[in-house]
Amino acid sequence: MSNSRLKNLLYDWHIYVVLVVFWIASSFASPFFRTIDTFSTILVSAVPIALVGFGQTFVVLSQGFDLSVGAVASMATAIASVSMHWGIGPAILLTLISAFFIGSLNGLGVSKLNIDSFIMTLGMMFFLTGVNFLIRPSPGGFIPSHYKKAVLYQVASFPLVPFLILLLSAVVGILVLQKRKFGREIYAVGGNPQSAKMSGINVDLVRIKVFIVSALSASLAGLFIAARIGSGNAEAGAPYLFDSFIVVFMGGTLVTGGVGSYRGTIASALIIASIGQILQFLGITIWYHFIVKGVLLAGVAGIQLFIVGRGRA
Amino acid sequence: MAEILRLESLNKSFPGVKVLKGISLSLERGKIYGLVGENGAGKSTLVKILMGLHQPEGGDIFVNGKKAHIKDPSQARYKYKMDIVFQEHALIPQLSIAENIFIDQLDSFYKKGLIDHRKLEQGAHKALDEVGIELDTTMPAGELGEGDKSLVELAKALVRNPDILILDEMTAPLESSTVNDLLKVIINLKAMGKTLIFISHRLEEVFRICDHIIVLRDGNLEGIIPNDPDGDHLSIRKKVIGMMTGMEKGLNFPQKTGLKSKGELVLSLKNVKNNWLKGIDLEVHKGEIVALAGLRGQGQGKLLRTIAGLLSMENGEIKISGDTLSADNPRDAISNGVFYISDKRDEEELWLTHNVWLNISIASMHDRTKFGFIRRNKDRNAVEKMVSGLRIETPSLAQIVRNLSGGNRQKVVLGKYLLARPKILLLDQPTMGLDVGAKMEIYYLLRKLSDDGIPTLAVLTELEEVINLPDRLLVMWEGEIVKEFFEEKMDEAELLDSYYG
After folding, report:
1. What is this structure's pTM?
2. B309 with B366, same domain?
3. Which residues of A touch B93 (CB under 8 A)?
4. What interface predicted TM-score (ipTM) does this complex get?
5. Which of A165, A160, A162, A149 is nearest to A227 (CA)?
6. B99 CB within 8 Å of a chain A CB
């Protein structure tokens, strides 16, 4: 095995080493951490983080930012809470259609009108926040209990359905990015848009598609959040905006695009969810969570550049 | 003979400059065409139009006798069967070699909806076979060496089975042994009935393989000269160079007034070394224009940037009027009156969206302040004097620089530094992208400045200016100065030979 292969392998998997080390250290730090209940809670709280991170990975890989993921997730809770009395299926469909529409708008603005993705999606975030309050002025609404049960379904206190959602997102995310034309084109566009254009790739279409993926996965995160909190809330998704970026960058995806993976994102989602747990067990007040997350983001990104350098697609 | 491609009065301009001025030509199937011309002659623009990366403003393109509208590269590739290997590598560094070769047809390797990497690698190996190399096709393209990159690009173009293949400066980064192999591959492609357009700065290569040589100059077609690859190249070489440089037309360069009279020593370098330079000694005196020439990327630009303190120095000494400059410190260079003017005029020298006034005033603004406030009238007068002195054509000082032509932009840059009272100017390709008239104005301006006591050290690339402008010419090869010329009339052949070390 050549040196560069070893380096790449290390780059691809080091975040899992971090995850395992973190879990072991936490188990020593607090006996509560070693229980199945804790593990279940971590899995459940990792789901929405991983889902917003899913789309954000696609967008960042293509050299963009999506600041609207939190607002889209909030929108999903709001729409679900006002439409679920018509039936769960129609409510989910309505949510996904709205997300598809928003993602297309983001993508069209970024590709066809050449608006910087940061600005386009920042505008979309504010716009949606307003719309969310129109739909759901105060937290509440109707989320049927059998929907909550189904989404959070447990077997012997193990959250089977959340686990399957994570697994499915991992399989889909990894296969699409590594083994589908669309995925490879995202790396091409993010790696060098000019080369991608010369090579005959429809750069605009790739950009539109990543924003659609992002909005759809954020809305799925919102549908999961709605099941957890049992209501709609115009701001429930907001904290997930920061989480979506922290997991993408911690997972080794470069802010400049073209390098990274969903594999890294999902491990980081588990780390972020675990941090929330361990800090709680250690009795540390909530505002320290923000400090820890902030330090972690900069720290991990810095360390991985220092140790393994730039990775590959 | 079957015609495969015809251009009829093709026109194209970019803001401030006409790049193609009515190009008409006709290419036959199964021939190799050399496309030559100096930087800015329009070669790149022409091939970019053929690949659908630029749209022409006027004129028609006919492929196989049918009128063609080439919207984008994939249309050029699949509808009109034209492909290109670009000077700037179009490989995507993060993707594997195999993925790069089949980048726009990865879905044809699907097995159950996923890319079958084994089939993909097999296809890539077969494609590389065609150009005679073997590589680990799972390796990221970014890890390839320059020579292999070019061959992978060629393989990438060939899998699409083009009728017309454009090779744009493909040999530029290659060593001569690799070039020989590559030329054999190209001749082989011709035998398969493909039409090739071969662009190279190394004329020797062009004469060795081309059937016809298309010469462009300042956006005009100067002629198509038939060539016998096996024949004697000497007379045809002279003809081509004459057409490329326009020397046949006898342009009037300024007198070389700094030839004999050695003025006061301004700049001296002793044994300057770093990553790109292997011990440079040189001197520039008052009244002189000194030029650095040679093949592209032999360290000419790096030398200027090192003197300007923009690149670090491992060893050696740089003195300006007797004072030693501290290395790696552009501020020290500037305060000693050493001004570097980048070849990336629009990116590194100008604030394109701001007006002429600000652009000229900005480097020396602090000279015209009182208690930290700019003295508006004094500032305006200084800038106005510069604008009229350099004859910058602008309706007013409030004109946005983006709206000026290339020549006037360059004069704005010169004005900016002249106001800061330079002792010497370091210019990297000062006439790049300018048309002949504007070039001439810059030449006369530099001459006048050196006569008035501000000497110039300039990187020059075009043969015509290399021969006619400088009092002294230093040829560089791999980071060293290998030859010096100081004649009134230089010998072209001797000069070109010196380019190859």
Report:
1. 0.76
2. no
3. 191-192
4. 0.79
5. A149
6. yes
